[in-house]
Specification:
mainly beta, 5-stranded mixed sheet
Length: 104
């Protein structure tokens, strides 16, 4: 399972979980799968596709861009430790092995 988590000083962190094979959108609109109600986030900002060994991010023509490790990208592959910035929110990418009890 992939975990994308923000660490915001003084605020509640956002945590998004992706199982391999999942495709999710990130944005501030209610129709986004992962809602980030934050400054500079487009209504439907980017798409995440989880695979066993990586997560692909695709910018969906957002106004303020999608950044991976401080580099603006249209499309990129995320690995553990990478930082995905959407608007002013920075999400750190982690890969977790699920315990058998978590798979049910």
């Amino acid at each position: 399972m992939w975990i994308l988590q923000s660490s915001q000083p003084g605020g509640d962190p956002w945590t998004f979980r992706l199982r391999s094979g999942a495709i999710r959108t990130v944005g501030r609109a209610p129709r986004a799968d992962f809602i980030l109600d934050a400054a500079l986030v487009s209504r439907v900002h980017c798409r995440l596709t989880a695979r066993d060994d990586s997560v692909e991010v695709v910018d969906l023509s957002s106004t303020n861009g999608t950044f991976v490790n401080d580099k603006r990208v249209k499309k990129a592959t995320l690995a553990p430790g990478d930082r995905l910035r959407v608007g002013r929110v920075v999400l750190t990418v982690e890969k977790r092995v699920m315990a058998r009890s978590e798979m049910d």
